Amino acid sequence: EWLGAHHGDKPFFVWGHLYHTHRGGEVPLLEWGKLKRQDNPWMYYYDEKLALCDAEVIGRMTDSLKSWGMWEDTTLIFCSDHGTNLGDRPATAPVYRQHEPACPCQLNRYDINVRVAGIIKDADLPKGVRNPGQARPVDIIPTILDLVGIPSDKYDMDGSSLVPAITAGRASGRLAYSENLQEWETEDNALRQSLRTEEFHFL
Predict the structure, then answer these.
(1) C-beta of residue 106 within 8 angstroms of C-beta of residue 83
(2) Tens of pLDDT along 160-203?
(3) Per-position b or e across 104-122, b if 16+ CB within 10 A of its CB
(4) What is the mean pLDDT of residues 41-62?
(5) Dihedral in degrees, nearest 10, Cα atoms 122, 162, 134, 132
(6) Element of type H or E holding 77
(7) Are 170 and 131 a contacting pair, CB within 8 Å?
(8) Positive or negative: CA dihedral 80, 119, 174, 152
(9) Which of 178, 172, 1, 157 has the alpha carbon at shortest distance from 80?
(10) With left for phi above 0 and alpha for psi between -120 and 50, is residue 133 left, alpha or beta?
(11) Cβ contacts of residue 107 below 8 Å, gap of 6+?
């Protein structure tokens, strides 16, 4: 709705977070009639919430951009802030959720929780190419600046633009650090840190 009222000749930037895909998001969605209530939903309606957001948020946005003639000129970046353990590894529910099943959660630092999808669409980037190598969420802002012609190297940022890596066909030489320093939220009240290289993942 905001895009419908404000799109025009001026450039715009929109950031969005799909909160309703998280555990607990199914509660208002059920109340609003967006989800069909089930007796034993898998992982708190996980698949249903993803499908709903794909159709009603991402799908509506892309359809609108195309109808306004803005699709080709708009840069879209899709990324998740964390993965989700859907029972791939044993997990103990944190203190504040002892009455609930331990999954889905993202408390430990295994790949299922730190590796996420990353999709970039831009008129100046190759289409349909899957770039091997390692990229990080901290690289997104420098990449956006690079794509709109603002040099990111003059700013003190933890990440670096992915445009050279995309052009070269591979992202290389990047170390990915992740942490969960809220000890009350981890499975055994311990700090969690990890460092991922192109070859190894240190936990």
Answers:
(1) yes
(2) 999 999 988 888 889 999 988 776 655 555 678 899 998 899 98
(3) bbbbbbbebbbbeebebeb
(4) 91
(5) 50
(6) strand 76-79
(7) yes
(8) negative
(9) 178
(10) left
(11) 85, 91, 94, 113, 180, 185, 186, 187, 192
